[in-house]
Amino acid sequence: MSNSNLFLYIGKPVKNEYGKLIGKVASFALTPSGKFEAIFVEFGDGQFTKQPMDNMKFNGADVTYISRIKNQANVLCDQIPLIWRKDQALRDLNDKKKIAPEVYQDLHSSFTNVLASLKKDAQVIVDEAAVEIARCQEEITSLSYAIANTEIEHEIGKVDEENYKASFALLQDALRRATSEKTDYELTKSKVSSVLLGDTQDALQRTKTYAEQVNVAAQKLPEPPVVVYVKEVGKAGI
Predict the structure, then answer these.
(1) Interval 206-238: pLDDT, tens
(2) CB crowding 70-100: b at 16 or more within 10 Å, else e
(3) Which residue, 192, 189, 211, is CA-closest to 203?
(4) Which residue from 5, 4, 22 is spatially nearest to 13, judged by alpha carbons?
(5) What residue ranges define each of the domains in the chain, with the CATH number in brackets?
(6) What are the residue ranges of helices labelled H in the chain?
(7) Which residues contact 58 (CB under 8 A, 6 or more apart)?
(8) Of residues 116, 127, 119, 133, the one with CA closest to residue 195
(9) Which are the contacts of 115, defined by CB distance < 8 A and separation ≥ 6?
């Protein structure tokens, strides 16, 4: 994509992978050679952040923010098993006397240090994913109470049919997005945690199976049921 085309995105809305509007394109950062290095995004609260270009997807008139946590998780889930395999291959070569002992020690130490650093980064990703899961759950809970209140007010005749349908559709869409986002973070956390445990092949198979189950479940997901707990609604002060 040419420089001029990218600059045309300034002022365009930025959405996350689930269709939620999060801000707009403010500007770009370029290297001295003219390569696009980062993008400045103004979020809804007026805060500006600088995001790597890898975290953004440009498709026609759409600008999509890709989760940094998910991006880093994918990289780590590739790198950690790779370093493990290299270190194991190194051990095998050493056992077969195909490399000098001092070479083995030097390379093994290097792999160990790199692996320790990657594991540290992976634990950070697990912790950050847990925070995002909690945030999504909080949003899901709030939306559930909002739906319950809408149902109550509609039931007693304070909300007419037109406004009820508009509100319900809006809340249901938001609930689907929040649920999908939470599922993705749970999958990311599970995948990185499995890799950290060292059971690489089984972890990858479990991750693939889990992802397939999530996709099938999402396709068959019925409309979220509305359950009204009047005491709970009063307790929440909504």
Answers:
(1) 445 544 544 544 444 445 444 443 444 444 343
(2) bebbeebbebbbebbebbeebeeebeeeeee
(3) 192
(4) 22
(5) 3-66 (2.30.30.240), 69-236 (no CATH)
(6) 3-7, 68-95, 101-155, 161-197, 200-220, 230-236
(7) 1, 6, 9, 64
(8) 119
(9) 80, 83, 84, 87
Cα atoms in the 13 Å half-sphere on the side-chain side of 169:
6
- Is the separation of the CB atoms in 85 and 201 below 8 Å? no
Give the side-chain half-sphere CA count within 13 A for 152: 15
Instruction: Report pLDDT digits (tens) over 98-136.
Output: 999 999 999 999 999 999 999 999 999 999 999 999 999
Residues 6+ apart with CB under 8 A from 213: none
β-strands 62-65, 36-43 pairing: unpaired
Is residue 87 a contact partner of residue 115, using CB atoms and an 8 Å limit?
Answer: yes
pLDDT value for 92: 96
Cα(116)–Cα(129) distance, rounded to whole angstroms?
Answer: 20
- Grade residue 46 by pLDDT with cuts at 50, 70 and 90: confident
211 DSSP assignment:
H
Q: How far apart are CA 26 and CA 38, in angstroms?
A: 11
The residue assigned the tokens 């994918």 is 74
Per-residue pLDDT, 2: 47
pLDDT for 197: 86
